[in-house]
Design a protein that fits this description.
Layout lengths: L6 E4 L1 E3 L6 E3 H13 L3 E2 L2 H8 L8 E8 L2 H13 L4 E5 L25 H9 L10 H10 L2 E5 L7 H4 L3 H23 L5 E3 L7 H10 L3 E3 L19 E2 L5 H12 L3 H19 L1
Parallel strand pairs: 1-5, 1-10, 2-3, 4-5, 5-6, 6-7, 8-9
Helix pairs in contact: 1-3, 1-9, 7-8, 9-10
Protein backbone atom coordinates (compact mmCIF):
# COMPACT_ATOMS: atom_id res chain seq x y z
CA UNK A 1 0.00 0.00 0.00
CA UNK A 2 1.35 3.43 -0.98
CA UNK A 3 1.46 5.57 2.14
CA UNK A 4 0.21 9.15 2.30
CA UNK A 5 1.56 11.34 5.11
CA UNK A 6 -0.86 14.19 5.93
CA UNK A 7 0.66 17.57 6.71
CA UNK A 8 -1.34 19.59 9.25
CA UNK A 9 -1.27 23.40 9.05
CA UNK A 10 -1.77 25.61 12.12
CA UNK A 11 -1.21 29.32 12.70
CA UNK A 12 -2.48 30.35 16.15
CA UNK A 13 -3.23 28.46 19.36
CA UNK A 14 -5.10 30.83 21.67
CA UNK A 15 -7.31 30.86 24.78
CA UNK A 16 -10.30 32.06 22.77
CA UNK A 17 -11.64 31.74 19.25
CA UNK A 18 -10.34 33.80 16.35
CA UNK A 19 -9.42 33.75 12.64
CA UNK A 20 -7.06 30.94 11.59
CA UNK A 21 -6.79 29.95 15.25
CA UNK A 22 -7.42 26.79 17.25
CA UNK A 23 -8.35 27.20 20.89
CA UNK A 24 -5.87 25.89 23.43
CA UNK A 25 -8.49 23.38 24.62
CA UNK A 26 -9.08 22.02 21.12
CA UNK A 27 -5.33 21.88 20.42
CA UNK A 28 -4.80 19.91 23.62
CA UNK A 29 -7.53 17.44 22.65
CA UNK A 30 -6.20 17.08 19.10
CA UNK A 31 -2.59 16.43 20.10
CA UNK A 32 -3.61 14.12 22.95
CA UNK A 33 -5.81 12.14 20.55
CA UNK A 34 -3.00 11.81 18.00
CA UNK A 35 -0.69 10.47 20.71
CA UNK A 36 -3.31 8.01 22.02
CA UNK A 37 -4.07 6.78 18.49
CA UNK A 38 -0.40 5.97 17.93
CA UNK A 39 0.44 8.72 15.44
CA UNK A 40 4.09 9.61 15.02
CA UNK A 41 4.83 13.31 14.47
CA UNK A 42 7.69 13.38 11.99
CA UNK A 43 10.59 15.77 11.73
CA UNK A 44 11.03 17.64 8.46
CA UNK A 45 14.00 15.41 7.69
CA UNK A 46 11.92 12.27 8.23
CA UNK A 47 9.13 13.67 6.08
CA UNK A 48 11.64 14.47 3.32
CA UNK A 49 12.86 10.89 3.59
CA UNK A 50 9.29 9.65 3.17
CA UNK A 51 8.91 11.64 -0.07
CA UNK A 52 12.23 10.16 -1.22
CA UNK A 53 10.93 6.64 -0.60
CA UNK A 54 12.31 5.85 2.84
CA UNK A 55 9.95 4.09 5.30
CA UNK A 56 8.17 5.92 8.11
CA UNK A 57 5.71 4.57 10.70
CA UNK A 58 2.30 3.69 9.26
CA UNK A 59 0.54 6.37 11.29
CA UNK A 60 2.70 9.38 10.53
CA UNK A 61 1.84 13.07 10.34
CA UNK A 62 3.81 16.26 9.93
CA UNK A 63 2.56 19.09 12.18
CA UNK A 64 3.38 22.58 10.88
CA UNK A 65 2.88 26.14 12.14
CA UNK A 66 3.19 29.26 9.98
CA UNK A 67 4.62 32.71 10.79
CA UNK A 68 6.00 32.17 14.32
CA UNK A 69 3.35 33.70 16.56
CA UNK A 70 4.01 34.20 20.25
CA UNK A 71 1.00 32.04 21.16
CA UNK A 72 2.82 29.04 19.66
CA UNK A 73 5.32 29.38 22.52
CA UNK A 74 2.73 30.23 25.19
CA UNK A 75 0.14 27.53 24.41
CA UNK A 76 1.29 25.04 21.74
CA UNK A 77 4.78 24.31 23.07
CA UNK A 78 3.68 23.00 26.52
CA UNK A 79 0.99 20.80 24.93
CA UNK A 80 3.49 19.23 22.55
CA UNK A 81 5.89 18.68 25.44
CA UNK A 82 3.22 16.98 27.56
CA UNK A 83 2.38 14.49 24.81
CA UNK A 84 5.93 13.99 23.48
CA UNK A 85 4.94 15.31 20.06
CA UNK A 86 6.98 17.35 17.62
CA UNK A 87 6.12 20.17 15.21
CA UNK A 88 7.72 22.33 12.54
CA UNK A 89 7.53 26.13 12.73
CA UNK A 90 8.11 28.26 9.63
CA UNK A 91 9.32 31.63 10.92
CA UNK A 92 9.53 35.01 9.23
CA UNK A 93 13.10 35.69 10.29
CA UNK A 94 12.83 39.48 10.00
CA UNK A 95 10.06 39.53 12.60
CA UNK A 96 11.91 37.58 15.33
CA UNK A 97 13.52 39.70 18.02
CA UNK A 98 15.72 39.38 21.08
CA UNK A 99 14.95 39.33 24.78
CA UNK A 100 14.47 36.79 27.57
CA UNK A 101 11.92 33.97 27.24
CA UNK A 102 8.43 34.98 28.34
CA UNK A 103 6.23 32.74 30.51
CA UNK A 104 4.25 29.94 28.87
CA UNK A 105 1.23 27.99 30.04
CA UNK A 106 2.07 25.73 32.95
CA UNK A 107 4.36 28.21 34.65
CA UNK A 108 3.37 30.25 37.69
CA UNK A 109 4.03 33.65 36.13
CA UNK A 110 1.29 35.70 34.45
CA UNK A 111 1.06 34.94 30.74
CA UNK A 112 1.68 37.60 28.09
CA UNK A 113 -1.16 38.64 25.81
CA UNK A 114 -1.80 36.48 22.75
CA UNK A 115 -3.19 38.88 20.13
CA UNK A 116 -5.66 37.67 17.51
CA UNK A 117 -4.53 37.38 13.90
CA UNK A 118 -5.49 40.85 12.67
CA UNK A 119 -3.99 42.42 15.78
CA UNK A 120 -0.75 40.51 15.15
CA UNK A 121 -0.62 41.85 11.59
CA UNK A 122 -1.16 45.38 12.86
CA UNK A 123 1.58 45.05 15.48
CA UNK A 124 4.06 43.81 12.88
CA UNK A 125 3.13 46.69 10.55
CA UNK A 126 3.69 49.16 13.43
CA UNK A 127 7.18 47.82 14.12
CA UNK A 128 6.01 46.06 17.31
CA UNK A 129 6.51 42.48 16.13
CA UNK A 130 7.95 41.45 19.50
CA UNK A 131 4.44 41.69 20.99
CA UNK A 132 3.14 39.14 18.47
CA UNK A 133 6.08 36.93 17.45
CA UNK A 134 8.38 34.47 19.23
CA UNK A 135 11.86 35.57 20.31
CA UNK A 136 15.12 33.84 19.48
CA UNK A 137 15.46 32.83 23.14
CA UNK A 138 12.07 31.10 22.96
CA UNK A 139 13.08 29.40 19.74
CA UNK A 140 16.22 28.13 21.49
CA UNK A 141 14.10 26.81 24.39
CA UNK A 142 11.69 25.00 22.07
CA UNK A 143 14.54 23.45 20.10
CA UNK A 144 16.16 22.26 23.33
CA UNK A 145 12.85 20.75 24.49
CA UNK A 146 12.33 18.98 21.15
CA UNK A 147 8.85 20.41 20.66
CA UNK A 148 9.62 22.50 17.56
CA UNK A 149 12.15 22.75 14.80
CA UNK A 150 12.47 25.93 12.73
CA UNK A 151 12.58 26.60 9.00
CA UNK A 152 12.16 29.50 6.60
CA UNK A 153 8.97 31.43 5.87
CA UNK A 154 11.13 34.10 4.13
CA UNK A 155 12.64 37.15 5.84
CA UNK A 156 9.83 39.68 5.28
CA UNK A 157 6.65 37.70 4.36
CA UNK A 158 6.26 39.97 1.33
CA UNK A 159 4.25 39.18 -1.80
CA UNK A 160 6.79 40.57 -4.25
CA UNK A 161 4.52 39.78 -7.20
CA UNK A 162 2.07 42.40 -5.87
CA UNK A 163 4.51 45.26 -5.37
CA UNK A 164 7.02 44.72 -8.21
CA UNK A 165 5.43 45.24 -11.63
CA UNK A 166 8.78 44.59 -13.29
CA UNK A 167 9.43 40.80 -13.41
CA UNK A 168 13.20 41.22 -13.10
CA UNK A 169 12.76 43.40 -10.02
CA UNK A 170 10.38 40.84 -8.53
CA UNK A 171 12.87 38.03 -9.02
CA UNK A 172 15.75 40.06 -7.59
CA UNK A 173 13.80 41.17 -4.50
CA UNK A 174 12.55 37.63 -3.87
CA UNK A 175 16.06 36.19 -4.20
CA UNK A 176 17.34 38.76 -1.68
CA UNK A 177 14.49 37.97 0.73
CA UNK A 178 15.24 34.25 0.62
CA UNK A 179 18.98 34.80 0.99
CA UNK A 180 18.47 37.00 4.09
CA UNK A 181 16.24 34.36 5.63
CA UNK A 182 18.84 31.66 5.11
CA UNK A 183 21.64 33.88 6.43
CA UNK A 184 19.63 34.72 9.54
CA UNK A 185 18.74 31.11 10.32
CA UNK A 186 22.35 30.04 9.80
CA UNK A 187 23.64 32.79 12.08
CA UNK A 188 21.04 32.26 14.82
CA UNK A 189 20.56 28.49 14.78
CA UNK A 190 23.88 27.30 13.40
CA UNK A 191 22.22 25.59 10.44
CA UNK A 192 19.58 26.12 7.79
CA UNK A 193 17.51 23.48 5.99
CA UNK A 194 16.13 23.28 2.47
CA UNK A 195 12.51 23.51 3.72
CA UNK A 196 10.54 26.66 2.83
CA UNK A 197 6.89 27.61 3.33
CA UNK A 198 5.33 30.14 0.96
CA UNK A 199 3.98 33.36 2.54
CA UNK A 200 0.22 33.59 2.10
CA UNK A 201 0.43 30.32 0.18
CA UNK A 202 1.35 32.09 -3.06
CA UNK A 203 3.90 30.85 -5.56
CA UNK A 204 4.50 30.92 -9.30
CA UNK A 205 7.25 29.71 -11.61
CA UNK A 206 9.51 32.62 -10.65
CA UNK A 207 9.02 31.88 -6.95
CA UNK A 208 9.88 28.21 -7.40
CA UNK A 209 12.95 29.03 -9.50
CA UNK A 210 14.14 31.56 -6.91
CA UNK A 211 13.64 29.09 -4.08
CA UNK A 212 15.60 26.40 -5.88
CA UNK A 213 18.34 28.90 -6.68
CA UNK A 214 18.54 29.83 -2.99
CA UNK A 215 19.00 26.20 -1.98
CA UNK A 216 15.45 25.22 -1.02
CA UNK A 217 14.28 21.82 -2.22
CA UNK A 218 11.14 21.19 -0.12
CA UNK A 219 8.41 23.76 -0.71
CA UNK A 220 5.23 23.82 1.38
CA UNK A 221 1.95 25.05 -0.07
CA UNK A 222 -1.49 25.75 1.39
CA UNK A 223 -3.04 23.46 -1.22
CA UNK A 224 -5.03 20.75 0.60
CA UNK A 225 -6.09 18.76 -2.46
CA UNK A 226 -3.28 16.30 -2.94
CA UNK A 227 -1.43 13.41 -1.35
CA UNK A 228 2.13 13.32 -0.03
CA UNK A 229 3.25 9.93 -1.29
CA UNK A 230 6.69 8.38 -1.77
CA UNK A 231 7.94 9.86 -5.02
CA UNK A 232 5.71 12.94 -4.79
CA UNK A 233 7.12 16.28 -5.93
CA UNK A 234 8.97 17.86 -2.95
CA UNK A 235 8.48 21.26 -4.62
CA UNK A 236 4.71 21.00 -4.10
CA UNK A 237 3.94 19.67 -0.62
CA UNK A 238 0.24 19.57 0.27
CA UNK A 239 -1.10 20.73 3.63
CA UNK A 240 -4.57 21.11 5.09
CA UNK A 241 -5.68 23.67 7.64
CA UNK A 242 -6.72 22.24 10.99
CA UNK A 243 -10.10 23.57 12.09
CA UNK A 244 -11.05 24.78 15.53
CA UNK A 245 -12.86 21.55 16.31
CA UNK A 246 -12.41 18.63 18.64
CA UNK A 247 -10.18 15.62 18.28
CA UNK A 248 -12.87 13.50 16.62
CA UNK A 249 -12.94 15.77 13.58
CA UNK A 250 -9.17 15.57 13.13
CA UNK A 251 -8.99 11.79 13.55
CA UNK A 252 -11.78 11.34 10.98
CA UNK A 253 -9.96 13.62 8.53
CA UNK A 254 -6.76 11.67 8.93
CA UNK A 255 -8.45 8.30 8.55
CA UNK A 256 -10.20 9.47 5.40
CA UNK A 257 -7.23 11.12 3.72
CA UNK A 258 -4.92 8.21 4.53
CA UNK A 259 -7.30 5.54 3.15
CA UNK A 260 -5.89 4.00 -0.06
CA UNK A 261 -9.29 3.96 -1.81
CA UNK A 262 -11.40 6.71 -0.23
CA UNK A 263 -8.49 9.11 0.20
CA UNK A 264 -7.94 9.84 -3.52
CA UNK A 265 -11.71 10.11 -4.10
CA UNK A 266 -12.04 12.55 -1.23
CA UNK A 267 -9.18 14.67 -2.58
CA UNK A 268 -10.75 14.78 -6.04
CA UNK A 269 -14.07 15.84 -4.51
CA UNK A 270 -12.33 18.62 -2.55
CA UNK A 271 -10.55 19.79 -5.71
CA UNK A 272 -13.88 19.89 -7.55
CA UNK A 273 -15.42 21.97 -4.75
CA UNK A 274 -12.51 24.44 -4.80
CA UNK A 275 -12.72 24.80 -8.57
CA UNK A 276 -16.47 25.37 -8.36
CA UNK A 277 -16.05 28.07 -5.70
CA UNK A 278 -13.37 29.78 -7.80
CA UNK A 279 -15.58 29.73 -10.88
CA UNK A 280 -18.43 31.33 -8.91
CA UNK A 281 -16.12 34.01 -7.53
Amino acid sequence: MTQHVPVLMYHHVTPGRGPIAVTAAHFESQIAALARAGYRSLTAEQFAGHLAGRPVPERSVLITFDDGYLDNWIYAHPVLARHDMHAVMFVVTGWVGDGPPRPHAGTDAPLPAAPAHEACKALVAQGRADEAIVRWSEIDAMRAAGTFEFHSHTHTHTRWDRICPDPDDKRARLAQDLARSRETLQARLGSVSDHLCWPQGYFDDDYVAAARGAGFGHLYTTVPTGRNLPGSDPLHIHRFAVRDLGAGWLLRQLALTRHPYWGPLYQRWKAWKRARRSARA
